[in-house]
Amino acid sequence: MLIYSxxxxxxxxxxxxxxxxxxVVFTSERLTSKTAQIAIGFEIVSxxxxxxxxPLVLEKLKDFGVRYITLRSAGHDNINIKVAKKLKLKxxxxxxxxxNAISEHAIALLLALNRKICTAxxxxxxxxxxxxxxxxxxxxxxxxxxxxxxxxxxVLVKLLSGFECDILANDLxxxxxxxxxxxxxxxxxxxxxxxxxxxxxxxxxxxxxHYLIDKKLLAFxxxxxxxxxxxxxxxxxxxxxLQALDLGKxxxxxxxxxxxxxxxxxxxxxxxxxxxxxxLELLQHPKxxxxxxxxxxxxxxxxxxxxxxxxxxxxxxxxxTPVTSLTE
Length: 328
Prior knowledge:
The structure is a single chain. The chain is of the alpha/beta class. It has two domains: 2-97 and 298-317, 3-Layer(aba) Sandwich (Rossmann fold), CATH 3.40.50; 99-290, Rossmann fold (3-Layer(aba) Sandwich), CATH 3.40.50. The chain has twelve helices and twelve strands. The protein has helices at residues 11-18, 55-63, 81-86, 99-114, 117-125, 151-162, 176-182, 189-195, 215-218, 238-246, 277-284, 299-317, and strands at 2-3, 25-26, 44-47, 68-71, 90-92, 143-147, 166-170, 185-186, 198-201, 226-229, 252-255, 288-290. A seven-stranded parallel beta sheet has the order 8-7-6-9-10-11-12, with helices on both faces. A five-stranded parallel beta sheet has the order 2-1-3-4-5. Helix 1 links the parallel strand 1 (2-3) and strand 2. The mean pLDDT is 97.
């Protein structure tokens, strides 16, 4: 088994989950059309959310003898499932590894942006203890909109209820359990954007949700609304969000993801120039907070991802279909 994009922080968890049952080779290289050749001689590869499993790459993996692909992520927008099926590659992911990790990070982003935590830390390190630039608002009593009420969104609803928020939601399927337990009210996207003081994005990236948050929906939002993204970067049109921030049409944007993060996030660019001017603008904007796709990085989540990775492999070895399969 070859594990692409292996990070130092996850390798111990993967080794523990393997229990020396499988021959595993780790590479820090991302899977791309150029690095696919590393998989020659391997039956199984494991990929991360930043890896490229587009049609050309999948065809190369198939030609090199790969039969199985296990994703160390819940999202699978980076792999072309239709092509994988056509090539008879078996693919599985790691869903539901820790909704708590993601939803808790969403709350952390909200509080950090609202209470100016980054600004405050920077100030006090310079021995500036004034409060003029640190005014926030109470989250208690605010109207929160959760777009996407799957496993992550459902946990987020529970956390927001602890802040005594009035909770609106939008999803293709309504959760009667959330409606009953937390008085969640499902609304259209336009209505949610009009009424919410806080908007959380917790939905998968698909052709339908690509650039879901654009200037049309932004126009419905309150001038002071805070937008929090713990889903996928391309759900948001970053350029149009930045324009809305500049024009005072929304109050702030906190995100753990970026639409063009592949090859940038998860890597140290301290001594390298980042040529993506849109990303630089996002990082430097006074009304934004950006974290490097770290929401899933908890001990519990990494343990579950590792266990699911080897569960998928064990199921295939036994000629069984894992419940996490994306191709059957």
